[in-house]
Design a protein that fits this description.
mainly alpha; two-stranded antiparallel ribbon; 15 helices; globular
Length: about 375
Amino acid sequence: MKQAESNQKSRRFFPQIWNDTFLYMIFSVVFGFFIGGVILAIIGISPFEAYERLLTGIAGTPRNRMFSMRAATPIIFTGLSVTFAFKTGLFNIGAEGQYIIGALVALILGVTLQLPPGIHGLVCIIGGGFAGALWGGLAGLLKAYRGIHEVIITIMLNWIAFYISNLVVMSGRFHRPASEASISISESAQIFTTRFEERYGNVHFHWGMLLAVVMVFVVWIILNKTTLGFRLRAVGFNRNASEYSGINVPMCIFTSMGISGLLAGLGGATQVLGVLGNLTQLANQEGFGFDGIAVAMIGGINPIGALFAGLFLGGMRFGSGRLNLMRVPTELVSVIIGTIIYSIAIMGVFRALVNFIKAKKEGRSV
């Protein structure tokens, strides 16, 4: 009797673990580092020493921690962008283009406007976010009213944003002579503070880093605590049922893509105003939007998860520079991240398969 009760408890416990998304993420991260360690061992480098250097590069000093967070800021924004769209049943692969447009508009406003410090930076951030929202909203309009799939639209818009950015940067009004970069934004538009630089040395803390954390909780509140979030998630869960219940489905699609674009646009704007100070002619897309897809997946399609996943990925990108001291290719970090993402996808398939088999067995037993 006791043995039967024990078996029944274990059956209840293990499916609970199996369906726990957080444990999936942990397993995938561990598996990614395991594969990276195998590769290091094959090329004759100690995985323990390499990972120790990587960890030191990420968080070994206050300066490194600050740089890691700064590197994570734009991909937290794009990760939130992709997460928001996913939550509402849309696949926003256009965070890259929305990021570029947000950065470009912030640059234009930062160069052309003459406003007091503080107000100027705030106007540039709002303008960049609004531009990203329009760019995402355009994809939403075509999806909602013309039925064009958002993946196709956003891929095309990514390249349009890419070429528009290069066109503006190399135009006479914004081009810096004898270079492939634009002129710099006005000092009044900058959003970084020198207090951290004085304390840690050559570290620019900018207010976009704090804004990214704030937006994580804003997105979580919108999705989980507001009627707007309920409607958007309902449309993503079942579009036909939502329409039958009286929800304006096309408007929800437009709104969702607009908010998603706004988040990516904020990432581009804060990067220009707080880190870069200008834009260069792009040889290729920089990948912040595509990193956002990785952040969304590693974070379990959850705003809070996107924060930690963004910090993880940003830290990995920055800390990988330490691996060069051991002659380890920095591409190893990309291999680890890719393995983590594939692990998440594969584990999702396994979970669906196990749930299917379990449901089938329960159906037969009945």
